[in-house]
Amino acid sequence: QVQLVESGGGLVQAGGSLRLSCAASGRTFSSYPMGWFRQAPGKEREFVGANRWSGGRSVYADSVKGRFTISRDNAKNTVYLQMNSLKPEDTAVYYCAAGARTYDSDTYIRRRQSYDYWGQGTQVTVSS
Q1: Alpha helices of 65-119 — where are they, by DSSP H?
Q2: How far does CA 17 lie from the centroid of its chain?
Q3: How many Cβ atoms from other residues are within 10 Å of residue 43's Cβ?
Q4: Per-residue confidence of the chain (128 residues) as pLDDT tens digits?
Q5: CA–CA distance from 9 to each of 54, 99, 126 (Å)?
Q6: Under a CB-based contact definition with an 8 Å cutoff, are residues 14 and 87 in contact?
Q7: Do 6 and 21 form a contact (C-beta atoms < 8 A)?
Q8: Which of the 8 DSSP states describes residue 44?
Q9: Counts for the chain of helices (H) and strands (E), in that order
């Protein structure tokens, strides 16, 4: 049984940083897409960033480009989201996602339906 468990969320002031972690168990994802999405109250879940395989190029939503960075540790089967220069509009529940299929284009990994496994989410709150 595959499980994704996020951690690292919390309350931070605007301009601060947080690092989210997502530990996967049940299978390895080094050759498969992993990414992060977020959902603010009253809004749909939106893409934050992802890569198609460990070490592959990461792609990001325009709203976080230059501030957020995705990395993976294959030995720990874990993906991270480093968030810097946080803004109040980054406040949301952040979800880790992993896919069981490979894709030949970054276009697909921006879509929620490309992922087969989801974590339970971790709250990030940025105060102004």
Answers
A1: none
A2: 15
A3: 9
A4: 999 999 999 999 999 999 999 999 999 999 999 999 999 999 999 999 999 999 899 999 999 999 999 999 999 999 999 999 999 999 999 999 999 999 999 999 999 999 999 999 999 999 99
A5: 23, 23, 10
A6: yes
A7: yes
A8: -
A9: 0, 11
What is the CA angle 51-82-95, rounded to 5?
65
Q: Which residue has the tokens 């890569």?
A: 51
Report the greatest alpha carbon distance in the chain: 40
CB 91 within 8 A of CB 40: yes
Q: Which of 126, 125, 118, 127 is nearest to 37 (CA)?
A: 118
Pick from 73, 36, 81, 37: which is nearest to 55 by CA? 73
Find residue 7's DSSP bridge partners: 21
What is the rounded CA–CA span in Å between residue 80 and residue 53?
Answer: 13
